[in-house]
Amino acid sequence: MILSKKHIFLLFVSISLLLIPASAIRGFIEKPKANFDGYLRYVESPEYRNSEECPILESDLSVCDPNLIHIAMTLDSHYFRGSIAAVHSVLKHTSCPENIYFHFVTSKDFDFQQLTQTVMSIFPSLSFKVYSFDELRVKNLISSSIRQALDNPLNYARTYLAEIIEHCVERVIYLDSDVILVDDIQKLWSISLTGSRIIGAPEYCHANFRTYFNDNFWSDTKFSKVFQGKKPCYFNTGVMVMDLGKWRKGDYTEKIENWMEIQKKKRIYELGSLPPFMLVFGGEIEGIDHKWNQHGLGGDNLVNSCRTLHPGPVSLLHWSGKGKPWVRLDQGNPCPVDLLWAPYDLYRLSLHL
User: Which residue segments constitute the domains of the chain, with CATH numbers given?
Assistant: First the structure.
């Protein structure tokens, strides 16, 4: 897609509006950092500091501090650049960046020490921990899906967060690696999960829910009765507020694994990690404002397909789908929405400015 000068100017104005800083105090010294395998020359993030209104943290910076906001993400070689941009956007737009604690889950085969050092070099003041995920735990449960990328065992790590993360952490926001925050994540963190609700996420009830499962599912009442008496809607698992305390008590990891075992035998859906979540939580989601997941910006499987923003306010942009903004930017063929992602990119940042 070739952008005219007019389009570029309009997008620059839009980006400028989105990048109005929050009340945190920021420094803007950017230093090139050392290579980490294929990750070439990331620059150091600006330093973000708390505003005066932020809750005071305990002196030992314990992961159990009740004043922390917990965010879980996965890290791998293909999406590392997206993850770094997502972290950058979270810190930039929150008024209490020092109260954010990141839980990064990566493959057991990844170089744990180098990965930790690389994240520290990009975000020297970041509070975080890297966890090793044993992919053998889930590998034999994964069925092939319509896209090979969906079969990556790390896509299923979100199912095991309640086991991976320290048990003193009872609430977490899970974010995919292809998102950008343009609002204060404290607002998302403050959303209540009422009653027995375990997950909060935007729901899309206009979508045809039946299409997420095949005839093998709907024709067998012992499967389809799982939705009896419920009004399930599609939800995207790339942005979720999760009550890990309730999750542990209800052993929801085992419930998801049970559906994955059925899938291996009966083939009741075609997608990857999403359907088991829908089978367990469909109709029991705490619906939150759609502005917290403007999804689908990656486009569909067609070459050079671009999506536009949905009408209404935006707090989080999500490049779900096949196309990723860093790939299209490097190819010199970005979609207009990709230019909203570029200012958060800390990989050879000067190429986009």
Answer: 69-203+236-266+284-344 (3.90.550.10)
